[in-house]
Specification:
Shape of chain A: globular
Oligomer: homodimer
CATH superfamily of the domain at 2-172 and 216-244 and 284-300 in chain A: NAD(P)-binding Rossmann-like Domain
Radius of gyration of chain A: 19 Å
Helix content of chain A: 25-40%
Order of helices and strands of chain A: EHEEEEEHHEEHEEHEEHEEHEHEHH
CATH architecture of the domain at 2-172 and 216-244 and 284-300 in chain A: 3-Layer(aba) Sandwich
Largest interface: A-B, 26 and 26 residues
CATH topology of the domain at 2-172 and 216-244 and 284-300 in chain A: Rossmann fold
CATH class of the domain at 2-172 and 216-244 and 284-300 in chain A: Alpha Beta
Strand content of chain A: 15-25%
Strand order of the largest sheet of chain A: 5-4-1-6-7-9-13
Chain lengths: 318, 318
């Protein structure tokens, strides 16, 4: 089977590419080709099949990005929340026009490919106590979430029309991301674990009882691969799934940090950041995963396992 | 106040224009100018203020369509359900790119205008028994509904960003439309009243107990004018409203027809049309209007009044 990944140079795109390269198959079928597409030519993993790397603008997608014979398209290219909020036109261009371009590329193929799309918990707004279910309406509180929710509608309609066969995953906040703290409101979620585990200080702008809906990078990658091969016959018109993430409080995260690395908790410094609090309090933290579980998405491991995964990844990389 | 109407040549656009021309004010403020925009230059009503008529493509909206100083924009331009289903690119261009063009036009204005947008009951899919509430998720079963639901998200986000101040009305099936039967799945809804009231035969493809969610042209126009001037301060992130339409069964419609014009019912002929039945059974027929009523949208009059309105309109026109 032939696979294409938009946003193939990104954090999750690279993880999916490396998994395919390592395993050589997807859903029991041998991978015979992989195209990685991103704004800059993505790094190519060593693989037992041909890999092509292409640079370009997803809103002006070249035909080579989703070539004839593509069976699976991971459509991961996105302008994320802080950037889409800062630059409306850029967010609209990548998150909406980019999705339209993927639809059009799929329409040109002889067989409708599976399209795995990443939407986000940021497409919801809710209180900390609300439980989001499969039927919950998306009322986004940010442009990124609005554009993702609109793109979900476009892909579900394209599925109904037979242009493609979409499965959208509304990913939880991915934690622990590698890298450095940044200006994203969600930056602290990874930072309060990552920096102390690396012996550095981190800033915490919310209270201990603040709850979050998270998923580890490995778990998110597993779900993306499952979405690429699951039987969609029973999904009906609704092609979007809230995968079974993990509800954790900041207090539980700090306890897991301390358990993994005694003394590390002392590196987390509480700061007042009302502008960050104002944003993150619209993020839902509790979901009913019944539909995702019935579609075969694996339940998330423990918070301790998530911290252990990061430590193992860091050791492997160094 | 200055008013602009995209789709100003359409059925509802012309009704709004004539109401403004006749009344000379909107929400207690004098109308000082009206721009009508459509694919063909719209007819201009006689009015106590200047009226401009412009022809063009809404996706490539000229600056004159929403000129500097515009206070209210009725964004009614749309490719409707049968046409959007028949031509995907045309539906996307008008229903999505057209909405983006309206957003961009509003961003250029010094003050964010009120934008009144028409979405549709077709953005939902449901069984006949389901009751749609303000929190019900839109899972469209047609491209028109999907594009309208996506445009709602785009306008709500543009509102949150301060580009404009949107109120979206998810209109019920408008009945009785003037004109002739057409290939739209909804054609029979108006036709089973309109044709017999005009002494002509009509075809009925569904059973007597089939329920519909409808609104008269006058009621829909009233709601559009109310949406143009209501206080949006309490609406929060959710800028979409299900106005308080009327749930009627086909049997009730036929009884109202017979009451208005004894013998007319015999002009309605039952036909088997499984392809129409398959489409219309996804249309919800029952709504909870609590939010709309709290926002001041007037409850709908009776079915007998709706039939009487059509008879009076027809007499006035002839």
């Amino acid at each position: 089977m032939r696979v294409a990944i938009t946003g193939g140079g990104g954090f999750l795109g690279q993880r999916v590419a490396r998994r395919l390269a390592r395993e050589g198959h997807l859903g029991g079928r041998a991978v015979t080709g992989l195209v990685l597409f991103d704004i800059a030519a993505p790094p190519m993993p060593e693989a037992p099949f041909p890999v092509v790397s292409i640079a370009g603008d997803v809103a002006d997608l070249p035909e080579t990005a989703i070539p004839p014979g593509s069976d699976v398209v991971f459509h991961l290219a996105a302008v994320v929340s802080a950037a889409a909020e800062a630059d409306y036109d850029l967010g609209r261009r990548v998150n909406l026009r980019g999705t339209d371009a993927v639809v059009d590329a799929c329409r040109r193929l002889a067989r409708p490919p599976r399209v795995v799309f990443t939407s986000s918990v940021a497409s919801f707004s809710a209180s900390q106590s609300e439980v989001i279910g499969a039927a919950t309406r998306q009322v986004p509180a940010n442009s990124y979430g609005a554009q993702k929710a609109a793109a979900e509608l476009i892909l579900a309609d394209a599925t109904r029309r037979g242009f493609l066969d979409a499965v959208t995953l509304r990913l939880p906040t991915v934690c622990i991301r590698p890298g450095r703290p940044n200006k994203a409101a969600s930056s602290f979620v990874s930072s309060i674990l990552r920096e102390p585990l690396n012996g550095e200080a981190a800033e915490l702008p919310v209270a201990d009882d603040f709850a979050l809906w998270i998923a580890s990078p490995a778990q998110a990658t597993d779900w993306l691969l499952h979405a690429a091969s699951l039987d969609t016959a029973g999904m009906g018109l609704d092609r979007s799934v809230n995968p079974p993430g993990l509800t954790v409080t900041v207090g539980e995260m700090l306890a897991a940090l301390e358990a993994a690395n005694p003394g590390a908790r002392a590196l987390v410094r509480r700061v007042a950041a009302p502008e960050i609090e104002a944003i993150v309090t619209t993020w839902p933290a509790r979901f009913d995963p019944a539909r995702a579980l019935s579609l075969g998405f694996a339940p998330h491991g423990s918070l301790d396992a998530l911290v252990g995964e990061f430590i193992a990844d860091t050791r492997r990389a160094s």
